[in-house]
Amino acid sequence: MSHQIWIRLSEIRDAAALMELDALVWDKDSTPAQIVWTSREQYLQKCPPGSQLVAGIGDEICGYLGFDSPTPLPSNGHVYDLNIAIHPSYQRQGVGRKLMESIKIIAAEQGIRKLSLRVLATNPGAKAFYESCGFLEQGRLVDEFYLDGQYVDDILMWCPIVPSE
């Protein structure tokens, strides 16, 4: 890629751009229910500043990777559940890979031992991308969703993290 990709933690000023990105990226092939934010406040409550890595080129935000513990249980605190969205104009240009590399470094520094995510079986491109980033299939919820007239499996994937010393 000829342009430098930057990565940083999300800030309150990113809310509008990230809400637009959600509206653009999440569709019937990538999520069982389209994400619709009713207000900036609702978005910020669900996705507070610092809960995502934001990727950009120049002044443009071109993707994000959200990370959070899957439950509030201390016994589950070693896991980050991920979601990632890349603007269609910036897909296949290294943005997603740079976000994945960055979250692995942050997770290792924070003592996180496992990254997990979910992907619909109807999204083989995303599954292949995750596999290329070191994710493995850990399970499959068969016929979990009924989308567009067909039953669709929800694939559970994970990536082990070796904590920094």
TrEMBL record:
Q: Which InterPro entries match?
A: Acyl_CoA_acyltransferase, Bact_Acetyltransf, GNAT_dom
User: Which keywords does UniProt give here?
Assistant: Acyltransferase, Transferase
Domain named N-acetyltransferase: which ranges? 5-162
Keyword check for Transferase: yes
Quote the Pfam families the UniProt record gives: Acetyltransf_1 (PF00583)
Top-rank taxon, per record = Bacteria
Molecular function (GO) terms for this protein are:
acyltransferase activity, transferring groups other than amino-acyl groups
Gene3D superfamilies tied to this protein:
3.40.630.30
Query: Is Glycoprotein there in the keyword field?
Result: no
* SUPFAM superfamilies with a match to the protein in the record: Acyl-CoA N-acyltransferases (Nat)
The protein in question is named: GNAT family N-acetyltransferase
